[in-house]
Amino acid sequence: MSVSRPSPEMASASGGYRYRVYGLSVRSDLPLPELNREENPGDADVDIRIGRVPPSAEEGLSFGPDGAILRINDVASYLMRDGREISVDPCPDASDRNVRLYLLGSAMGVLLHQKGLLPLHANAVEIDGRAVAFMGESGAGKSTLAAWLHDLGHRVIADDVCVLRFDEESGRIRVDPGLPRIRLWKDALEGSGRSPGDYQFSYAGDETYEKFDVPVPHERSTAAEVDLAAIYLLSAGGGFGITRLTGVEAVEAVFSHTYRGFVVSQIGRDRLHFDAAVNVVRNASIFRLERSRDFGDMAAEVSAIIAHARHLPGP
């Protein structure tokens, strides 16, 4: 299905704005310029609506009979129901960009779990027609690596949230396209040769939070699912090294780096999550990638990663 950048001023004739992300057709009351527009959409998999959200006792995520509620002070409240619908209740005078930040981040992450999908806290790029994912905690360098690979001509598949799907017939794991952007801290942005003045802050209204959104043009991002070649778990080290993870260690890595993984138990999907993690380990190569995190070493390290990924066996 073809996608293109949206025109925020014009909603779909079928009602609402129409987008495609994580392999899902999305209908939204809100314009979402971060996403790719869906041409000739059919029935929506996800509805995003402006509506009243029941009050929650405190800021953060809570669960109740209505669904999962995420409340962010001075931004918005979000209600996620049945993996099908997100209601958005913005606070007065909240920045539209901040409302979308949490909608497309934590709120969408909860919805993905409700749908039974496996979202990893990872970035993914395409190398020789296959997906390579970089998994790790915030600040581990996932987006930095994705930016360097993007600048070398490799298409970006996903930033920060990487959704995996399983093809039961072939046994292959596929990566669905995520948000066509790369989010970088100021030092990583400058280290990649970019200027902060050319990009918007990820969070509006707090310039001490020096993270920036770098949009990826449609032709430099991937619009269709891609077979997964490998997952690299990033860790800091004294030098560069790649070692294979297997068995319990590999399963634990997937568990620990599931995006918003604490949601799994709350919605009763522990067994499905375990089965999905085991399936990943059985059908994909998982490695620990140690890096120096010195920008002076980036060119050599990225070249070594590309060479390693290109020599991986097929599914």
Topology:
Layout: E1 3-4, E2 17-21, E3 24-28, E4 36-38, E5 46-50, E6 60-64, E7 67-72, E8 76-81, E9 85-90, H1 96-114, E10 118-127, E11 130-135, H2 142-151, E12 156-158, E13 161-166, E14 173-176, E15 181-185, H3 186-191, E16 200-201, E17 211-215, E18 226-236, E19 241-244, H4 247-256, H5 263-266, H6 270-283, E20 285-291, H7 298-310
Parallel strand pairs: 3-5, 5-9, 11-18, 18-20
Antiparallel strand pairs: 1-4, 2-3, 2-4, 6-7, 7-8, 8-9, 10-11, 10-12, 10-13, 13-14, 14-18, 15-17, 16-17, 19-20
Question: Could you give a quick summary of the protein structure above?
Answer:
This protein is of the alpha+beta class and 315 residues long. The protein has seven helices and 20 strands. The chain starts with a strand and ends in a 5-residue tail after the last helix.
